Amino acid sequence: MDPRIPLCRDGIPTSDAFRPAILQVMKDGEVRHRRWILKAAQDILDIPQELREEAILSGEKKCDHRVGWALSSLAKAGVLEKPHRGYYQITDVASVLMKPKFQFSITESKLSGLPKWDSYQQQLAERKRAKLEEKELVSYDEHLSISEADPVETIRGLVAQIDDEVATELLDRLRESEADFFERAVIELVQKMGYGQSIEDTRHLGKSGDGGIDGIVSMDPLALRNVYIQAKRYGEGNAVGADSIRNFYGALAERHADNGVFITTSRFTASAFDYANRMGEKIVLIDGQKLTSLMLKYRVGTQAKEVFETLEIDEDFFE
């Protein structure tokens, strides 16, 4: 390996080093599968086979993990795009990073100024602010070293950071999905939150002439009590206003319904919240940030990648 390539303590290149390697193997504009890119990036850096075989506790290869992280960040920055599932292709944005000064390392700070990356960072910051306001943010000072911070506190903070990144990517995927898929996804979420005994207790209605109702979840076997759902797959800047909530309320009134959930991938205006509050507990509003937090909590569209356990002394054993 070139001595100018930044390495971690284990002798394996950092994710910062793998970013320019990825750009080198993708610069011809071809569409390639993720597995091909993982190997090609390690080949171009001439990483010894013994280092490629080193694995973390989950069994995943360290090198593959770091290349994957670099690959993901380049996609989030718009430097790479995904024309198909698992496949990547370089974009015109990459020209900014194809310079000699980025030959051996591209840090995340160097991605600043790229529109998609800045938007991604803004979404992360907004999610953190929302958690602070709701007092859900894990207490963790990211500026403390591992030796200075409480280890469990550090782990919780890092897990929360990963969750925020997954939730942000999840929201983008939902906005890019088809309307029919999004409606079915939120219906499944409401069911998994405990409304309805099983997926068989749900109905998807989202189509022309549905009367403003996209789905119904039965709360009891005889369907005497139902939750009515409206799902709006909007872009980041397209907020849901009071008129939409008023129309949803009208649709509920036509069905003599008591429970309505309005879910969107964007946000609600102040007037929308005001109108919903005046309706009492009849309508619940769930915006994009709340939606993805719930999807992580109830494992809809996400799955556990790795589980960590911390141990303590069993005092009962010694007594």
Features:
single chain; alpha/beta; 5-stranded mixed sheet; 3-stranded antiparallel sheet; globular
Spans of at least 5 consecutive residues whose pLDDT stays below 50 are 142-146
Main sheet: strand order: 4-5-6-7-8
Main beta sheet: strand number and arrangement? 5 strands, mixed
Radius of gyration: 24 Å
Roughly what fraction of the amino acids lie in strands? 5-15%
Number of helices: 11
- Distance from first to last alpha carbon: 56 Å
Shape: globular
Structural class by helix and strand composition: alpha/beta
Give the helix proportion (percent range).
40-55%
Give, in order, the helices and strands: HEHHHEEHHHEEEHEHEHH
Structural commentary:
The protein has about 325 residues and is α/β, with parallel strands linked by helices. Helix content is about 45%, strand content about 10%. The protein is built from 11 helices and 8 strands. The protein has helices spanning about 15-25, 35-45, 50, 60-75, 115-135, 150-175, 180-190, 240-255, 270-280, 290-295, 315-319; strands at about 30-35, 80, 85-90, 200-205, 215-220, 225-230, 260-265, 285. Strands 4-5-6-7-8 form a 5-stranded mixed sheet, sandwiched between helices. It has a 3-stranded antiparallel sheet with strand order 1-3-2. α1 (about 15-25) packs across α4 (about 60-75) and α8 (about 240-255) runs parallel beside α9 (about 270-280). It is globular and about 70 Å long. Residues about 140-145 have low confidence and may be disordered.
